[in-house]
Amino acid sequence: MHRALQEEKDWTQRYTDFLENQASREARIVYQRDRARVIHSASFRRLQAKTQIFGLNESDFYRTRLTHSMEVAQIGSGLVEQLITVGDGKDYLDWLPSFYLIEAICLAHDLGHPPYGHGGEVALNYMMRMHGGFEGNAQTLRILARLGEYTPKNGIDLSRRATLGVLKYPAIYDEVIALNEAYQSQMQEPDAFDFRTLDMSRWYPPKASVFLEEKAQFEWVLDLFSDSDKELFTQLKPNDKGFHKTQYKALDTTIMELADDIAYGIHDLEDAVAMGMVNRELWQAEVMEHPDFKCYPLWDEVMTERLFSPRSKDRKHAISKMVGIMVESVHIDENEVFEHPLLRYQAKLGEAEMTVLELLKTFVYIHVITLPEVKGMEYKGQLITLDLFKSLRANPQALLPRNTFMKYDRAESERDRQRVISDYIAGMTNTYASRMYEKFFTASQGSIFDRI
């Protein structure tokens, strides 16, 4: 019997089963239910009203976090299918995730993103800086392990392997910031008197997928690995952004991240083209004529014709072709420093495809993400988030919904109380947060009949 089959029941175990010493079920059932639990969760449904890049009122066409997550899941399944197709007789086949499993991981990967995208994330991190911080990936694990509605105490309670798959940065937030003395000193600054004067670029959170509150679940996920594998997998090394960062990811995470990058670099490009934010001349100069693309010309001018066609069908054909080129290049590499196959096997794109994908991601970042119009909306979302947090912190009994205030009131420490407020705001959609802001701060808006 293959090792993968021998370990299967260990990886399908749920945290609740672990605590109650219950037997695990077979993979086919568990991973199918993992996917179903994510799809039917409130956090997943709320992604339909959280921005990907553009404002929700721009058009029904443009992507939200929900449609982005669905596209990531579809690409993730395509990557697994391609790895099966080219993997005849190879050992890694026993360790590939099922379609149900990879879709569950991909659909869950953005559950923790707050309203207003990374702008909201930075604002929450600032307000929580003395109380455990905030990071979107760590909030995803918190939803899966604690906040989700499927179990009373253990959240959505996905299988061990699905939970491992969403751990993009297998490190605990507190341990990462403890290694940054400059940030530790910065944290001591008092709250800004006027948030409009606050330099939010100083408050980007570290890349850490675990809050200290979920340490027990994190250790349970890694429990099947050897001590040496765990040490290397969670090892923190300095990088050029000030915070230390982990260096490695599990097999399923590498597949999910490739799918996420492809969706970001190619599908989000489609939105930019459709909105007229990127024109053909700019594309020609900065992509088609770029030295990297000249070195790896993955498509010809016909692709450009279709991408910038006034017909949406032509654009869709071009986007589909680009995605297919990326997916068909996927292969498995081995990192022999690890013992366990789920850490040793790594999904990667071909050199040409990865180089061009990075070029596309940079193109989207420069000409879409950092546009003043987009950054302005992000700034507005930050201010809304900051003001809401400040008001809820000052007047929790009056302003928090009753069920949320009950959690706040039962919390055993100040850190736990602030985390309740953070969880409440992080779970808001853009629309809900904006409506609450108007109710609190706009004299002509709001009514006692508006339910919060």
TrEMBL record:
NCBIfam families from the UniProt entry: antiphage_dGTPase, dGTP_triPase, PRK05318.1
Listed CDD domains: HDc
Protein name as it appears in the record: Deoxyguanosinetriphosphate triphosphohydrolase-like protein
SMART domains associated with the record: HDc (SM00471)
GO molecular function, a single term: dGTPase activity
Domain HD: 65-265
HAMAP family found in the cross-reference section: dGTPase_type2
Annotated source species: Hydrogenovibrio thermophilus
